């Protein structure tokens, strides 16, 4: 590297004392929204670029990482004729590229888009779709958890923007850093895979609120209050596939998925023109929570438990029987829970003149048959929110555990 080529890694040494503080805070994150609500001080804006997330580890980054302000979700299909050998080579390239970028280093054949930026909490997460196993001759090793999701009455799914052989989630706290990673992944796919669909999302920027708090969606609602937290004793059991023989989880999970998780991805369009016609009080009845602070209609603060038995003077439930919060509550679904980690999106105006905007819903669980499916079935039967949303795309992906130093994501599947 010539003297005048400043890598993203060298930038970290120029941040100074403020940057060093940012690295310490970055693990907890200063983002406005949290995958698992933390109670740490907000990160100063000057340190946003210096925060980093390690690529290697027991789990892939981008699952419990605090929600970043910019994201890309991309699905790829293997090219005709590409099989297990080509897929393994692709995962080696992708893993090596992601590890360099997460460390603040340039990619091979770097475009220069992010040369003057720090890693900005960049994460790149990889998953396999159901069809990946057929195309690589590994159908016998496909988890039963990748069986197709059931049809729901509210689905209006576009198959061109659903599923895929491979899935990549990119998140960062800088738009250029996220775009740079997206281009690096797309370029390093080479002739082995081609893009099936791409969706771009956003959240609040780090430091934009006076204190860390759960993020709001485009309906103005605080979204993610009941997320499992890493401090919960059953967090790992709910979110990650256990190591075989550990005595927890489902016995039908394949060994190569140990430390991994399953991602359900849904593009949910919000019918904002209809929603915004409701008075705030009526919106609160639909959700079952106050719009101002996310607290249950039965009182308290955002994290106060729902009092589902409480009734008003007229004898009706304070939290309506069809309120979204009631129907989706774990106690109403035999304890079923998932870690929601979405991005908002806005793709301009639809042909009918309404906003094409909503939620790129991403949820993580050790078993979607016990997490997403039972909850969505119940929502599908009578959620008051249903008239204001439309599920337009869907995908289910097996996301293996993290890679060791020098290894790559998916090696236990592709090399065994």
Automatic annotation (TrEMBL):
<keyword id="KW-0456">Lyase</keyword>
<dbReference type="GO" id="GO:0004325">
    <property type="term" value="F:ferrochelatase activity"/>
</dbReference>
<feature type="region of interest" description="Disordered">
    <location>
        <begin position="289"/>
        <end position="312"/>
    </location>
</feature>
<feature type="domain" description="Dyp-type peroxidase C-terminal">
    <location>
        <begin position="214"/>
        <end position="402"/>
    </location>
</feature>
<dbReference type="InterPro" id="IPR048327">
    <property type="entry name" value="Dyp_perox_N"/>
</dbReference>
<dbReference type="Pfam" id="PF04261">
    <property type="entry name" value="Dyp_perox_N"/>
</dbReference>
<keyword id="KW-0408">Iron</keyword>
<dbReference type="InterPro" id="IPR006314">
    <property type="entry name" value="Dyp_peroxidase"/>
</dbReference>
<dbReference type="InterPro" id="IPR006313">
    <property type="entry name" value="EfeB/EfeN"/>
</dbReference>
<keyword id="KW-0349">Heme</keyword>
<dbReference type="GO" id="GO:0046872">
    <property type="term" value="F:metal ion binding"/>
</dbReference>
<dbReference type="InterPro" id="IPR011008">
    <property type="entry name" value="Dimeric_a/b-barrel"/>
</dbReference>
<feature type="region of interest" description="Disordered">
    <location>
        <begin position="199"/>
        <end position="236"/>
    </location>
</feature>
<protein>
    <recommendedName>
        <fullName>Deferrochelatase</fullName>
        <ecNumber>1.11.1.-</ecNumber>
    </recommendedName>
</protein>
<dbReference type="GO" id="GO:0005829">
    <property type="term" value="C:cytosol"/>
</dbReference>
<keyword id="KW-0575">Peroxidase</keyword>
<dbReference type="GO" id="GO:0020037">
    <property type="term" value="F:heme binding"/>
</dbReference>
<dbReference type="GO" id="GO:0033212">
    <property type="term" value="P:iron import into cell"/>
</dbReference>
<dbReference type="GO" id="GO:0004601">
    <property type="term" value="F:peroxidase activity"/>
</dbReference>
<comment type="similarity">
    <text>Belongs to the DyP-type peroxidase family.</text>
</comment>
<feature type="compositionally biased region" description="Polar residues">
    <location>
        <begin position="199"/>
        <end position="218"/>
    </location>
</feature>
<dbReference type="GO" id="GO:0030313">
    <property type="term" value="C:cell envelope"/>
</dbReference>
<dbReference type="Pfam" id="PF20628">
    <property type="entry name" value="Dyp_perox_C"/>
</dbReference>
<dbReference type="InterPro" id="IPR006311">
    <property type="entry name" value="TAT_signal"/>
</dbReference>
<dbReference type="InterPro" id="IPR048328">
    <property type="entry name" value="Dyp_perox_C"/>
</dbReference>
<keyword id="KW-0560">Oxidoreductase</keyword>
<keyword id="KW-0479">Metal-binding</keyword>
<comment type="function">
    <text>Involved in the recovery of exogenous heme iron. Extracts iron from heme while preserving the protoporphyrin ring intact.</text>
</comment>
<feature type="domain" description="Dyp-type peroxidase N-terminal">
    <location>
        <begin position="60"/>
        <end position="203"/>
    </location>
</feature>
<keyword id="KW-0732">Signal</keyword>
